[in-house]
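Dear support,

I submitted the protein below through the web form. The confirmation email said the job was done, but the results page showed an empty box. After a refresh the structure appeared. I'm attaching both so you can tell me whether what I see now is the final result or a partial one.
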Amino acid sequence: MTTDFIARLRAQIGGPRDGALLRFSLGQALLGNGDAAGAAVALREAVAFDESYSAAWKLLGRALADSGDAGGAIDAFERGIAVAQARGDVQAAKEMGVFLKRLKAAG
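What the results page shows now:
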């Protein structure tokens, strides 16, 4: 993702389109651009807007793991699995379960 795209997303923060999807998109772009810590901030904001956004929990866990916060990543994956199971989002729960097992095994 280019820094121009990230700048356009950031410009929308606080506007009428601000919300979980915008923050998720920003987090995804930042993570793709190698800014795991910045991505984690945006993704925390995404789940603050919508705690039932299982894809945001999954990406938050990845961003936290990539930024070296294994404990935060484990918490995000555990919360994300609970959200995904409550929503019937079986695939997201499975994926987060795999990431969670890997983190716990590495720690």
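Response: this is the final, complete result; the empty box was a page-load delay. DSSP finds six helices and no strands in the chain.
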